[in-house]
Amino acid sequence: MNPSEQLACYTREVEQVIEAWLPKEEGYQKHLIEAMNYSMKAGGKRLRPLFMREVYRLFGGEGREVEPFMAAIEMIHTFSLVHDDLPCMDNDEFRRGLPTTWVKYGYDMAVLAGDALFIQAMETASKAFSMTDRADIVGRCIQILSSKAGIYGMIGGQTVDVELTGSPLDAEQLDFIFRLKTGALLEAPMMIGALLGGADEAQLKTVEEMAAAIGMAFQIQDDILDVTSSQDVLGKPVGSDEKNNKTTYVSLYGLEQAMADVERRSSQALECLKTLPGNHEFLEHLIRLLVTREK
């Protein structure tokens, strides 16, 4: 199986894990759950749960206690997208080639769906307690999950991003937004996978550094695609950063420097990966894919 076929196969496996943890669409709150599940099933690269599982396996993890965390990180990521698309944020009408949640279900239901996905993520992650005898590790993983998603992680980065929209950003401010808004939600799954797989503290630190570099490369590439891709390829409107008067990596440093920095950050991540145990082949392919992706 070549790397592309392996990625497609692994992505399908991750999809199956995620769908197994979605709430049933029933009861008086059925419409809300439909909106949640619509958002979760809208596709996507599933990079976060995929990275989590592969880092878990890298350290020798073989159980199923990682699965509720795989679903939980994708719920948190999806919650952030649902709210990011709202008229009060980016006001986007399409994502992954489909109408955004607020367009399909209404503004009010989209707000509630995002809220519900966030708390559902924590409930789902807590199911791991009954799947392992290492309650201390599960508890620490939940702490990482909530911390990297909260005011010192993704939501903190989004806050600064929203507050400074329309204002010119300097390099330090943009770096802060990237590290928290995107980097934190890649650090969390890789760190959780490492801990559940048996990583020691030094290895955990290396995994965090690797994930931070991947997060920066990923977000810079996102900014590049916003000016070089098309809606048909990307599945969402291009040029939305310019439309919303956002400073991006490309507007700050130029396209050529941005492309070089994606390569540099990816190389940093690969150097970290080389120091970790296990078979690196698939993870190396996945990291390299971020440099060349078109959507």
Automatic annotation (TrEMBL):
Its EC number is 2.5.1.10. Its cofactor is Mg(2+). Signal peptide: none annotated. GO terms for biological process: terpenoid biosynthetic process. GO terms for molecular function: (2E,6E)-farnesyl diphosphate synthase activity; metal ion binding. It catalyses: isopentenyl diphosphate + (2E)-geranyl diphosphate = (2E,6E)-farnesyl diphosphate + diphosphate. One of its GO terms (cellular component) is cytoplasm. Gene3D superfamilies: Farnesyl Diphosphate Synthase (1.10.600.10). Keywords: Isoprene biosynthesis, Magnesium, Metal-binding, Transferase. InterPro entries: Isoprenoid_synthase_dom_sf, Polyprenyl_synt, Polyprenyl_synt_CS, Prenyl_diphosphate_synthase. It comes from the Bacteria. PROSITE patterns: POLYPRENYL_SYNTHASE_1 (PS00723), POLYPRENYL_SYNTHASE_2 (PS00444). It is an enzyme of class 2 (transferase). Belongs to the FPP/GGPP synthase family. This is Farnesyl diphosphate synthase. The lineage of its organism: Bacteria, Bacillati, Bacillota, Clostridia, Lachnospirales.
